[in-house]
Amino acid sequence: MHMLYDSESFVVVHMLPDVLEPDPQDPQALNDTSVARFARHGFEIVDKRSGKEVYLDGSWAEMFQAQILAWQRKTPTQEEVEDALDRYAGLAQNPVVVH
How many domains does the chain have? Predict the structure, then answer.
């Protein structure tokens, strides 16, 4: 898990999966299809204003990753980042729960 952004309004975290690699010494494990070989990553965006979060994975995560790469090429203003995150925050339905 990597914190990518933290402001008064938003937090963005890149969630990296725990990938289980088969034991190369175990021929049975190499043929085991239950082992996660293509683990997926995702992004959690927390809207601090509403107390809700959205988790982006699959094609949503790919689109957000493209946005991050664009930001790396051309540094955006904080307002541009916040506007983009606000659009994603519209998808947020899950309340943030602290354990």
Answer: 1
